[in-house]
Amino acid sequence: DKQLQIAIDGPAAAGKSTAAKIVAARLSYIYIDTGAMYRAITYKALQHNINVEDGKALGRLLADTDISLEQGENGQIVRMDGIDVTEAIRTDRVTNNVSAVARHSEVRRDMTIRQQELAARGGVVMDGRDIGTSVLPKADVKIFLLAGVDERAKRRHAENLKKGFSSDLENLKREIAARDKMDTERVESPLKKAADAIEIDTTFMSIEQVAAAIMAVAEARK
Ligand code: C5P
């Protein structure tokens, strides 16, 4: 079998990571959550009181930062300079600052190189915003997942409650919409469907249906 590169892009909370993890497990591929990498550098920048508008300072910080993704028994473990930041990168503070950090060319250029190196091993499912357009323009499979903002906020809300986190639906809606706007409007590798990506609107689909749809495309390309 050919070892595929599968790129999954789309707006916040569209179900990318859930679908990507299922597909990676079924194909025995590695899964790479590029959003977690942007979150890790955002977390470090906030810790070091670096201004999220200062691209040069963020670029210097990133050059000096080790970010690793590892498949643990209970999902992916994210390490920043050797420290487990898997949970720390999911706080509201990081979520509300990550798009400002991810906007800078100094940050994106460095991340893109790291992500291309991770994907070079082949047999990879990578999710993010610019994988099909910029990181892996030659990916064998490109998927663009979307869903209405109300539905995405509802899903994230249910997820939060299930985890025992406090959650406010209206806040989530605003946060998701604000992040999508920044990610879509930035100059450097904005969130955009690649011309050759297959678009899947997941609004009325179950996660199993989404995974099956992506698997069908992947099987056909092997
Ligand atoms: O996927 P997740 O929601 O964790 O991504 C967090 C943020 O990281 C996005 O809102 C976006 O600003 C940034 N990001 C990006 N490019 C990627 C992945 C994530 O700019 N490939």
From TrEMBL:
Stretches assigned to coiled coil: none
Main localization (coarse): cytoplasm
Any Gene Ontology biological process: nucleobase-containing small molecule interconversion
Sites where the protein binds ATP: G10, P11, A12, A13, A14, G15, K16, S17, T18
EC number: 2.7.4.25
GO molecular function: ATP binding; CMP kinase activity; dCMP kinase activity
UniProt subcellular location: Cytoplasm
InterPro entries named in the record: Cytidylate_kin, Cytidylate_kinase_dom, P-loop_NTPase
Entry-linked Pfam families: Cytidylate_kin (PF02224)
UniProt domain Cytidylate kinase: residue ranges: 6-218
Keyword line: ATP-binding, Cytoplasm, Kinase, Nucleotide-binding, Transferase
Enzyme class: transferase
Catalytic activity as recorded in UniProt: dCMP + ATP = dCDP + ADP; CMP + ATP = CDP + ADP
GO CC field: cytosol
Protein origin, superkingdom: Bacteria
PANTHER family documented for this protein: CYTIDYLATE KINASE, CYTIDYLATE KINASE/PANTOATE-BETA-ALANINE LIGASE
HAMAP family: Cytidyl_kinase_type1
Similarity annotation: Belongs to the cytidylate kinase family. Type 1 subfamily.
Name of the protein: Cytidylate kinase
Lineage: Bacteria, Bacillati, Bacillota, Bacilli, Bacillales
